Amino acid sequence: MTKKAESTLVFWIFLAPALFAFIMVMVIPFFLGSYYAFTNWTSSARADNALRFVGLKNFVDSLRDPAFLYSFGITFVYTILNMVAINVVAFALALLVTGNLRFKNVYRVGFFVPNLIGGIILGYIWQFIFNNAVPSLGTLIPGLGFLADPDKLLLSKNTSALAAMVIVGTWQYAGYIMMIYVAAIENIPQELIEAAKIDGASQWIRLKSITIPLCAQAFTVTMFLTLVNSFKQFDVNVSLTSGGPSTMLMGKPILGTELLALNIYNTAFISNKLSEAQARAFVFFLVLAIISIIQVYVNKRREIEL
Amino acid sequence: MKGIHPRRPGSIVAEIVTAVLFLLFLFPFLLVFINSAKTSFEVTQYPLALPSRWGNIIDNIVKIWTSESVRYPSSLLSSVIITVISLVLINLFSAMAGWALVRTKTKTSSVIFFIFVASMVIPFQIVMFPLLSWFRTVTMATGVRLLRTYQGIILSYIGFGAPLSIFMFHGFIKSVPLELEEAATIDGCHRHQIFFKIIFPILKPIQATVLVLNGIWIWNDYLLPLLVLGKGNDVMTIPLAVSNFAGAFVKQWDLILTAILMAMVPVIIFFLFAQKYIVKGMVAGAIK
Questions:
Q1: CB contact under 8 A, B22 and A106
Q2: Where in chain B is the domain with CATH 1.10.3720.10?
């Protein structure tokens, strides 16, 4: 065997296991799925029977479904709110735990812990908090009686239930994002801050003109990370609200807090419209692809600037 | 060093604010703990009070341990089996693939690497339904059962976990000097020996990151096991078990919260032991 043939063989042998799994679960299903979005694919059991190309029908049907339009809208609202809330809280926490605190390592770990627990479990914990613990607080503390009013429960109205999801999302991710900010803040050269102190710069000026600009790269990372994670939220949605409470839109009853990932799931398994769910997943993919292209573009531009 | 400076009043305010936030962040876990020690009546009537009898926690744990719908011992075992085997294989296969892709400079190699990187954009939602029907097709054609089995879910985790892991190994191996391998070749090492004896051991820091990132994801994952393993299966993971139980015993918060407590304990214990690696690994993974 020649040397070249041997190294080609080694290349394929080393690549084979990962490539095989990747092709089996990502590549093939991705192409099948993109194709199914344009067909009348119905039951997964009879996938190959009478599969017919239907053009954009599934996309048009989706756009006519108020539940999908609504879901799209609130997913954007949720994503923006969640992104802002997580980053503000995480940055504030990072400033606190990089300061001169006695137990800063304990605090860091504490803020990080929710991130280790699965979203499905976190959602159930907070369902209990919003439905039981908070009303109980209302009965215990005079003046907070409104908390105990069953009509005023956070999860009983769709706008406040969405806010509840932002609270849980922030609690879940802020500690993780905080760690990224902590790494960035600790990378700032100490001399820079000392020099500014000697020049008499106040804490606020130091934050504005040193800390924030030097964390710019971390901001890009965390913005996109929280953007994508919030947009894909599914687990907390399932266990906290299951998409509810119901509401009306365009004369049809729809779920009030059903984010896109849950809407796709429900379209397939509750409404039994597999090809339409596939079309929605395709749209979901396109949005994420566009976000990623913007991210790559932004990072490239930043690299040139540096 | 920092302790030498006299503490300014500003830092005392920061200390108090942080401590309050810290308690607030951990309060939900405290609630889970105290309510796991209550009876069903107590939980709904006095969710914020301390339990009247701490011994109840044992009763509740026994109920969950023996519950037919949680099947805690078997779910814990399944979760451990799935997570450990998937992690070992993702780590090994991705390191192998990363090394092959760096050290072979051909057009095919760059195209394959590009496809791995590009695939990180693909959300699970677009592949999940076709994955199920494709697995069924494979089973019909080959007789190998993939749905509702360990091999099916482990194969899935390797496939979904590989792109990011390969990307991370690839980045690190690029910085490993080629001379190291050339020297070994002169000493008579075969290509595969070079990988297992020289490269794989020096990848340890990246391996730690890959294991942490994939480990947290796989252990907590809900949607993939729900679809691939399904409900009412012998093979069930902890998140599936908890959601099954919460769905079947609506409002039985004493038991639901006990199940949650028991689901969290293994993670917390593991975290306390591997804390340093976990935090470092997750931050490194995000920045990559």
A1: yes
A2: 72-248
